[in-house]
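Final paragraph of the annual report: two paired records, presented back to back.
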Amino acid sequence: MFSFQPAAFVGNERRWKEDYSVLDPDVIWSKIEEGAGAKLPYKIFQTGDFRCNRTAFGFYVGNKWYPVLDEDSDSDLSVRDEFFRYLGGVHWSAPLPLLLTRLTRAAIAQPHLIRVTLGWLNRTVHRIGGWPKAIRALASKQVIPVTFVMHRFMDAEDVRPAWDMLKKGVMSDDIVIRETQERLQSCFYGMAHPESDEIVPACVQHSVLDPGENAALAQLLPLPHVRKVSAEQSLPSCGVREP
């Protein structure tokens, strides 16, 4: 997995020298696609707001990346829907014998899943270049699963007023604050705040509800050496590789 986590204005203001405001989601994603060497379809699976999170599941065959599902294919969209409808509750990390037993039971109960799976497999192999190429790639271990992810956090100065207004049931007329509110409302990463027993968005936890922890981090983490680089030059540095 390659996870890209663009910087947000949180913490000590002296840390922020470059103009990170240019890091809008479309610019970030285009840079990720440029590095991946392929179009990365992210709309087929949605986790929260696309302005916050984007994920593209796929695999490399040699130097070329292919999506597991193509968001422009109606057939692949049907595969996604069937997967969540009949297999969404499957524990995929279960021991292999148990997993195979559960999948077999699902196939017996819903035999059309076999047809759906074979259709998806045939389309995927066709995208790669046909069965001979796919078999050779598998035999030579050239098929490598790779997922690309973007987590784009929000600035603390926007989160606080947005959250305060949401608590009062008020939506802002300010474009930036309104966007922040919409992203908070659809947040996929809820966290339990121990002092209030609330489930709150991660950006609220870190930007609004953790002043003590942020102050401690300011002491623990030394300020980085500041280099004079443009925001465009700093774009590729927002990536982190995860195991």
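The closing record of the year follows.
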Amino acid sequence: MAGAQPAPIFAPAVSWSGEAIRKLRTLAVDGLLALPQRGMETGGLLLGSVSERAPFLFSIEDVCPIQCEHRFGPGFTLSGADHEALREQLASARACGEHCVIGFFRTRTGPGASTFFDEADRDLVDNYFDDPSHIFLALHPRSLSRCEAAVYFWTGGRLTTTGRVCELSELTLAAGPSQPPPDRTPEPEPQPSFMLETAPQQRRPSITMWFVGVLCGLALGGFLVVHYRGSGRTLPKPEPTEAAAVPSPPPAVPEPQPQPPAELPPQAEPVARRAVSLEAIRPGVPESIAARLTEPVHLILRVDIDETGHVTSARPAEYSDGMRRYLAQRAAEAARAARFRPAESASGRPLPSTETITVTVHPAESRQ
């Protein structure tokens, strides 16, 4: 099979569920911490659905790890027993029917690792994932908080890549090559299907007619002045008339309305009995991580618990050490699934509360 080529502009797209992203990050980080400075590579199946026609739209709903005994070292190279287990796993997944197998993923760790496609990947693709409705995801965990990802597709009989490496957290919304941007040319505004009626314009009097009227008024005034002066009479002065003042009635005064009594806000009952965990909180820490611990690690969490005893949120304290920060995240995941007896008031009423708890992770030797 030919090597990976750049993907065309119009290529398939991939959407991811939050559960799939969480599992991929956990598997990648666990493998990175399994072997100091090198890490252990891992891989697995991508489960979900795919559209029936090209360009395909892949929907990743879950992931399932593939068995690898690492007979040839920390790299993800399958032995004969691993290949036999993979064939059984594929048959079981296809018979289940809940999600179909739409591809596989693998992580890369160690010096010089990246999201490239190598001979071991090509062997898996040729034997198990050579259908155009399959994809390949390469992961490169750089640290406990950073994990690069690249997606490969089948295009024109070749395995192609998007040509873009992104952070694993960016795959939550979508992955794959970007589609051509839509035409952003603004559409013309629709014209109204009716005509607005305009008011008839009033004709303004011309300046000539106004001037003629003024001249006529002046001539008439001059004639009256000359007439009265010649007759020895003076113009009568108009007598001022006082307008009768009509008293206005006093404004009506509205009758006062009774005000409703103000409602007092309900007083929250104080917590008389704190919430108590009904089960031990045990973080799911791999044995390879627990083996690196020399003493118990105590982790502090802030847990919000509702009236029914369910945990609505769990927040670990801030730790500068990378190992403690990783263990605190695993402890918070375990606390979210725990059940509590809710806090109660003095009258025995269940109340929501926020508790500060301590979760302890023990070394591998103390688990025996």
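The first strand starts at residue 5 and ends at 6. This concludes the annual technical report; the extension proposal builds directly on these records.
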